[in-house]
TrEMBL record, chains A, B:
<protein>
    <recommendedName>
        <fullName>Phosphoribosyl-AMP cyclohydrolase</fullName>
        <ecNumber>3.5.4.19</ecNumber>
    </recommendedName>
</protein>
<feature type="binding site">
    <location>
        <position position="105"/>
    </location>
    <ligand>
        <name>Zn(2+)</name>
    </ligand>
</feature>
<feature type="binding site">
    <location>
        <position position="81"/>
    </location>
    <ligand>
        <name>Mg(2+)</name>
    </ligand>
</feature>
<keyword id="KW-0028">Amino-acid biosynthesis</keyword>
<feature type="domain" description="Phosphoribosyl-AMP cyclohydrolase">
    <location>
        <begin position="34"/>
        <end position="106"/>
    </location>
</feature>
<keyword id="KW-0479">Metal-binding</keyword>
<dbReference type="Pfam" id="PF01502">
    <property type="entry name" value="PRA-CH"/>
</dbReference>
<keyword id="KW-0862">Zinc</keyword>
<dbReference type="InterPro" id="IPR002496">
    <property type="entry name" value="PRib_AMP_CycHydrolase_dom"/>
</dbReference>
<keyword id="KW-0368">Histidine biosynthesis</keyword>
<comment type="similarity">
    <text>Belongs to the PRA-CH family.</text>
</comment>
<keyword id="KW-0378">Hydrolase</keyword>
<dbReference type="GO" id="GO:0004635">
    <property type="term" value="F:phosphoribosyl-AMP cyclohydrolase activity"/>
</dbReference>
<keyword id="KW-0460">Magnesium</keyword>
<feature type="binding site">
    <location>
        <position position="85"/>
    </location>
    <ligand>
        <name>Mg(2+)</name>
    </ligand>
</feature>
<feature type="binding site">
    <location>
        <position position="82"/>
    </location>
    <ligand>
        <name>Zn(2+)</name>
    </ligand>
</feature>
<comment type="function">
    <text>Catalyzes the hydrolysis of the adenine ring of phosphoribosyl-AMP.</text>
</comment>
Length: 116, 116
């Protein structure tokens, strides 16, 4: 049982694993930093602590972003999308968002280059 | 069988339904417009036509964004994330990205208001 506000929980449309998608965006610059997943409890912790907390699908545990690396995300704002299955977190990212050391998880692999 | 470049297909890490997540972001402003899903063929069509094409999970069909509404997405740039399961599309969105008529799918439901 999660501590998440039932009025919020009622609006979530979770996938088969009980998760919603979460997009983290840097405040101000608008950079899309990373995409991860949350269950109700991860969202509850994120909303109440303003420290981005995800559900790690690979480790099957809660994951406070930056708890190990120091690359924390202070959560400025959280929005839910129109069909309830995706969150947008506006954050202040400390250091690199990506485990590779890149600023964002989208820095390294360009499939289609920008047009002029 | 998709026409997607095998060198790209090899880097995708699809979910159980064969899909990767796709975040659409407005070029210039950085607004996160929406999140949807692509299979290999949807990505192939997106890369080759520069018109954002998704896989509709509800309708189980390809969905050229704006084909009905006129609210198309011209794709400026496509990036794959570090673990291969999420795409970032930098687009020029015509009109509203959200089916509700809102500019983005994240406009209506604020779970945690912005701090000053």
């Amino acid at each position: 049982m999660s501590g998440l506000d039932p009025a919020v929980a009622d609006r979530l449309r979770r996938n088969a694993d009980g998760l919603v998608c979460a997009v983290a965006q840097q405040r101000g610059t608008g950079e899309v930093l990373m995409v991860a997943w949350m269950d109700d409890e991860a969202l509850h912790r994120t909303l109440t602590t303003r420290r981005a907390t995800y559900w790690s699908r690979s480790r099957q545990e809660y994951w406070v972003k930056g708890a190990t690396s120091g690359h924390t995300q202070h959560v400025h704002e959280v929005r839910l999308d129109c069909d309830g299955d995706t969150l947008l977190l506006v954050v202040d990212q400390v250091g690199a968002a990506c485990h590779t050391g890149d600023r964002t998880c989208f820095d390294a692999d360009v499939l289609l280059p920008a047009q002029d």
